[in-house]
Specification:
By secondary structure, the protein is mainly alpha-helical. It has nine helices and two strands; from the N terminus they run H-E-H-E-H-H-H-H-H-H-H. The termini are far apart. About 30% of the residues are buried.
């Protein structure tokens, strides 16, 4: 049975995301000191005249600016996509479909939204630690999407087994950790390089890197507790509420740290 309070949680989440998106949009329109984050393409140059023993056939890569981005706009997209996702489940038709899936220990809407919203979150983290290559940023987005879709598959293949008390197949859950680890290894390598090469690094970048890593750990811990039926997590809805709270906190912290710190 899906309690009415779960719909209230989705309604609160929708309101919070919309309010934050409007607040950031209003402030973005008023302020004129936006930081432009440069994104580059990195391709090899023509190999003519290059010492092939030293560089290979193409020579050292050359970076060309591709686009300039505002982190505030990224944060607004995260908030808007999240608001739309939660808003879909509080309208009559969406509520019925949402309840149907929750009764069957699933929420595919969540994972499809996470492929986009948390993908943008990971891209923002990459930008603030110094990743500026569009191909690496795109790979980070896709790695996150792969993890989220594998977690969706975990719910799909284990939904009935959870109800019937049968053994769960943890393979999709475990596999989802691999692209997440790859994602964080890339981000951590750039974060470490920034620490070594720069005289100082903003405390806000430290906060973003550490807090978002912790929030990722919390996501996986909540899912593990939910599907291992640890304590109150034996009730699927309890884990659903925990994931709603975790997502609100993660997205809100990132948005307002980047905005308030001047990284916007």
């Amino acid at each position: 049975i899906v309690p009415p309070s779960l719909q209230n949680w989705n309604l609160v989440a929708t309101a919070l995301y919309i309010t934050q998106a409007l607040a950031m949009g209003f402030n973005f329109a008023l302020l004129d000191d936006h930081v432009q984050w440069h994104v580059f393409t990195t391709y090899p140059v023509n190999g003519e005249g290059i010492n092939q023993w030293e560089y290979g056939d193409y020579g050292p890569p050359v970076s060309e600016e591709w686009i300039r981005l505002s982190l505030t706009l990224f944060s607004m997209l995260v908030m808007i996509s999240s608001a739309l996702s939660h808003g879909m489940v509080v309208v009559p038709g969406g509520r019925m479909l949402y309840s149907w899936y929750i009764q069957r220990n699933q929420n595919p809407r969540r994972w499809f939204e996470y492929t986009f919203s948390f993908g943008l979150v990971k891209v923002v983290i990459g930008l603030v630690v110094g990743i500026s290559d569009i191909h690496i940023l795109s790979a980070i987005f896709v790695l996150n999407a792969t993890s989220m879709l594998l977690l969706s598959a975990h719910e799909k293949v284990n939904a009935k087994a959870r109800n019937d008390g049968f053994y769960l197949l943890w393979f999709p859950y475990i596999c989802s950790i691999i692209p997440q680890l790859a994602n964080w290894c890339i981000t951590a390598s750039y974060f470490g390089a920034s620490l070594v090469r720069l005289d100082s690094i903003s405390i806000y970048i430290w906060e973003i890197f550490i807090l978002m890593f912790v929030f990722d750990l919390v996501l996986y811990l909540v899912l593990f507790y939910q599907w291992a039926k640890v304590g109150d997590f034996d009730y699927y809805v309890f884990g659903e509420v925990a994931l709603i709270v975790q997502a609100i906190m993660a997205k809100s912290f990132l948005a307002w740290i980047t905005f308030g710190s001047g990284l916007r």
